[in-house]
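Need a sequence for this fold. Nothing fancy.
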């Protein structure tokens, strides 16, 4: 038998709630967007140094994904 910490037991109870189950149904949409950002638009790896440059890279990747979505919705 596994010994579970209090936090683990609380999380297990939370995962049995209707709130969690409802939110989990929509998680795949968010995960798909995160995967696209990481694998298609380079959000998973910094291409330059310094925090400002990494923030700019992140902003450009997110902007690109949002622009693609807008164009798709317009058609």
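Here you go.
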């Amino acid at each position: 038998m596994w010994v579970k910490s209090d936090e683990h037991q609380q999380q297990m109870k939370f995962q049995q709630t209707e709130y969690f189950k409802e939110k989990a149904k929509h998680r795949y949409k968010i995960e798909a967007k995160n995967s696209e950002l990481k694998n298609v638009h380079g959000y998973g790896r910094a291409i330059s140094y310094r925090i400002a440059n990494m923030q700019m890279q992140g902003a450009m990747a997110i902007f690109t994904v949002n622009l693609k979505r807008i164009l798709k919705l317009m058609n």
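For context: The chain has a mean pLDDT of 90.
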